[in-house]
Write a structure and sequence with these properties.
- There is one protein chain.
- The protein is an alpha/beta fold.
- The chain has 10 helices and 8 strands.
- The chain has a single domain (2-9, 19-292), classed as Histone deacetylase domain (Arginase, Chain A, 3-Layer(aba) Sandwich).
- The protein has helices spanning 22-34, 47-50, 56-63, 69-75, 81-104, 130-140, 158-164, 200-215, 244-261, 277-292, and strands at 2-5, 38-41, 106-109, 147-151, 170-177, 190-194, 222-226, 265-268.
- Strand 7, helix 9 (244-261) and strand 8 (265-268) form a beta-alpha-beta unit.
- The longest helix has 24 residues, at 81-104.
- The chain is globular, with a radius of gyration of 17 Å.
- The model has no long low-confidence stretch (mean pLDDT 97).
- The structure holds zinc ion.
- Residues 153-155, 228, 230, 270-271 line the site of zinc ion.
């Protein structure tokens, strides 16, 4: 299996900023030393790719550093030229992984899953919406028809739901922390909200309902799986109480349901804010390892 990386494209953050940029490098090193996947540097998405999901005026303001202070606060990241390059690489990695999955059965972007980005705005650490770009690009070149997005990041995929919800060939499915960000939501097609403190058993039961319901809406040519590490019990932003074993079970369930249905899977890592960064990396490593087999 191939894993598309872009961790060498980094950007400056103020001292003490809560975004754990270091997790991506640690993960790539762990994958390489375990020989779990072939790690490939992803090419950047170009403007034509980004315009498949984004308003041209928004793209131009991002590229030229003209986001207002308010927009940068909503994004949660300060603008820099490197932020733009990293954003392009992150979308490029999702595009490459989605194409590769269609050929090989599974592929991973060692990042991505920027599901809070809307057509004309970014928020919640998400500048560009990689899933919407990839679905529209692969649809446009005839690689896929129907697509299933399974968003198991703990935060609801509001931007993706807004961009792809109106698309009759895309199903947006997700399990969310019901009391968590974003507080203004855009409904998906099949979703369940879980209360704060939900543990393994209730989480796995919810997923056992979600996956068959999502697949019943029509056989997809591709599943895009956002394997967020943030439903974890020791996540700073998660508010649920799923253990590492519970998250590994979640990954196996997604893998096994899609395998049984003959659906290739493009895996994206999405959020992960463990109190210990090593936990986030271990959760991501377990995800990659489930799909590498
Ligand atoms: Zn999240």
């Amino acid at each position: 299996m191939r894993a598309f990386a872009h961790d060498r494209f980094t950007y400056p953050l103020p001292e003490g900023h809560r975004f754990p940029l270091g997790r991506y490098r640690m993960l790539r090193e762990a994958i390489e030393s375990a020989g779990l996947a072939e790690v490939v540097e992803a090419p950047p998405a170009d403007d034509a790719d980004l315009l498949l999901a984004h308003d041209p005026r928004y793209l131009e303001r991002v590229v030229h550093g003209r986001l207002t202070d308010r927009e940068q606060r909503a994004l949660g990241l300060p603008w820099s030229p490197q932020l733009v390059e990293r954003g392009r690489r992150s979308v490029g990695a999702t595009l490459a992984a989605a194409r590769d999955a269609c050929v090989d059965g599974a592929a991973v972007n060692l990042g991505g899953g920027t599901h809070h980005a809307f057509a004309a705005s970014g928020r919640g650490f998400c500048t560009f919406n990689d899933v919407a770009v990839a679905v529209r690009r692969l649809r446009g070149d005839g690689t896929v028809g129907r697509v299933l997005v399974v968003d198991l990041d703990v935060h609801q995929g509001d931007g993706t739901n807004a961009l792809l919800g109106p698309d009759p060939l895309t199903t947006c499915a997700g399990i969310n922390g019901g009391a968590n960000y974003p507080f203004r939501r855009v409904p998906g097609d099949v979703e369940e909200d879980l209360p704060d403190g939900t543990g393994d058993d209730a989480y796995v039961e919810a997923l056992g309902r979600l996956l068959p319901a999502a697949l019943a809406r029509g056989a997809p040519d591709l599943c895009v799986y956002l394997a967020g590490a943030d439903p974890y019990e020791d996540d700073r932003l998660g508010r649920l109480a799923v253990t590492q074993a519970g998250l590994a079970e979640r990954d196996r369930m997604v893998r096994d349901h899609m395998r049984a249905a003959g659906v290739p899977v493009c895996v994206l890592l999405a959020g992960g804010y463990g109190r210990r960064i090593e936990d986030t990396v271990a959760i991501n490593l377990a995800t990659v390892s489930s799909f590498a087999r």
